[in-house]
Amino acid sequence: MNSIHPVVRALALSILLAFLSFIPLGVAHASVSSPRPASKLVHVQPPEPEAEPWETSIAKIEAARHAGALSTSEAARLRWLAISDWQQLPPSYQPQAPSHVISAPQDRNTSSKPRTLPAPGASVPLHAHPNSSEAGPTDGMVQAAARMAAVFSDHTEWDSATTEAIYADMEQAQQQELVSLNLNITSTHFVIHWAANDDDLPDGCETTACSYARAISDSLELSWREFENYGYNMPPPMHFGKEKIDVYIQPVVTVCGASYGDAEEEDKKILGMSWPGDIYLRSDQSNHDVLLPLATHELYHQVQWYYVGFSGNGCGSWISPWLWYHTGSAWLMEATATWIEHEVYPTRSREPGATYRGALRLDF
Ligand SMILES: [Zn+2]
């Protein structure tokens, strides 16, 4: 049958030839390049998250404790040093020391005393990294609670001298830090503190004419009213042992002798945190789309502490909240505190890359 037009036949033939010539090329290409994806996969394996110095030191301290070289209380004191001032640790517990040189402190007779290792449930959590995917502008509750849990998880087994020594250390460091914040303004529910010589703050903050403190104060009072409108019972005066909630503006968030998130990278800085009665905020957050919702977020944590029943104020009284948060409450507290930010500030967002809802921008 010659019913197929020659042009059509030629076209069909050329397509067929092109198809046939393509197959071996494709196969050859595939066979030559097939090892490449595999080797690429090996190279793009995400690196293990790098342990922070305190984590490395605590791992060494705990290894020594489990080997019988340290008592529970001795390990606790060393763990406290690891999170507050790890440079003061004995050399063998310094983060950079090779792990095979782990030994008991020199002043201890390690063979004379039987060890009582904690029950499995009481072991110190060493995987204290927050989920690294959570990196981004954030408060530092997860990180702080993880560090404190690494020190205090077995605190009921410490001897009283150890407990007193560590609490005293924390309180002394806390008082030194807070005394250095020598200026303040007061609003209906808050006292905002900062340091006159804090170079990260804008002009005017050498005096009480500090726009940064005023913006935080205004956001907190606005948020307080909004929470009341939502029907929340707000913490009454003296619930946290004082008339007003204290808000500390710091170059680096520092709480009870431990400093958090002094990172070069902007998205790894710890911007704030909130423990019963106290709020901590960094002094270098000039972006109000971050700063104002963050104040809302931290105030909501105060409401949460109030509802849960934590009323203490100060380092010793925060052990229970730290452990409670760390052992399972963090996800709900953070999820709801982040939700309420958007309720109070629907046109601001501190999430990286988030788009703003609505066109209205509130400028304070
Ligand atoms: Zn939070």
Question: Your description of this structure?
Answer:
The protein has 364 residues and is of the alpha/beta class. Helices cover 45% and strands 8% of the residues. The chain has a five-stranded mixed sheet, with helices on one face. A two-stranded antiparallel ribbon has the order 4-5. Helix 4 packs parallel to helix 6 (160-179), helix 7 (211-229) packs across helix 8 and helix 8 packs across helix 9. The protein binds zinc ion. Zinc ion binds next to helix 8 and helix 9.
CATH architecture of the domain at 160-344: 3-Layer(aba) Sandwich
Largest sheet: 5 strands, mixed
SS element count, helices: 9
Query: Which ligands appear in the coordinates?
Result: zinc ion
SSE order and pairing:
Blueprint: H1 6-33, H2 35-43, H3 53-66, H4 72-84, H5 141-152, H6 160-179, E1 183-186, E2 190-194, H7 211-229, E3 245-250, E4 253-255, E5 258-260, E6 272-275, E7 278-282, H8 288-308, H9 319-344
Parallel strand pairs: 2-3, 3-7
Antiparallel strand pairs: 1-2, 4-5, 6-7
Bound molecules: zinc ion (ZN).
Short description:
This protein is of the alpha/beta class and 364 residues long.
